[in-house]
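Hey,
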Amino acid sequence: MNQTLTIGQAPAFVDDDAGAVPVRASGLRVDFKGQPGVLAGLDWTLAPGQVVGLLGRNGAGKTTLLETLLGLREPQGGEVRLFGQPALMPDDALRARLGYVPQHSALFEDFEAGDLLRYFRSFYPRWNDAKVDGLMSRWDIPRERRVGQLSQGQQQRLSIIRALAHEPDLLLLDEPVASLDPAGRRDFLRELVDQVLDRGTTVLFSTHILSDLERVAFNIAFLSRGRIALHASQDALLDEIRLLSGPIGRLQAAVDTHGGQVLSRRDLGEQPRWLVRFASGRLPESDAALRCEALNLEDLFLEMTQ
């Protein structure tokens, strides 16, 4: 069944009430030994109720960014505020509003699945037993089985249940469906949609499975060279961005005439190529000297992250 799950686009805005903004990152800089600039002065804001798929090449720093946003990694420069509080100094009330699924689940393998959830339940006043029971049943996770005896896919589902159970206001997920089959991924996305529609949760998750992003009308952000190179709704990206190729003078004329924003450019070779975002309704047309191509999400990913 090819079903499209649609989430309304959150407005792009800057809220005067800093405490209402789920994520505000300013000038983030993270260096690894031998790899400076994993994050290089990154600025980013996520609005309430926004659902963002984070894309980037392997090694681009997606996991580093998620960990830094949550305060799990201290940056060498800049800061992150979550609902107005410093991410590195969260109080209990802030922790209760956050959910996180790491790329590799660090669950207590000797615990039975049911005992593990009861353990985490004690930390969260907003724990939803009915949600937990429904997901455990639907995802066929036996409560009496030890976590270490569960399959990799079941462990990932259990980690997702743990992150959703306390109904967080901000949910960050790092490749949350990597171990799930297509049916499991679809079920997870449906649950994610319900979480957003029911509670207005702000969600950020990284993935390399582009079809999952296309199934849900996410906002999409591209991480490249240590910064967020672009962040917009999927519809806007596909409607407004074009790959132009032709003589440089002709490319510049098209950009100037139609008010385009150059996102990337490759001027070497016989056929220069510019990736350009135009305002809605102001797209240039192809002619003998200029080629204007619409891109699908995969092509856009390759152009944005090269």
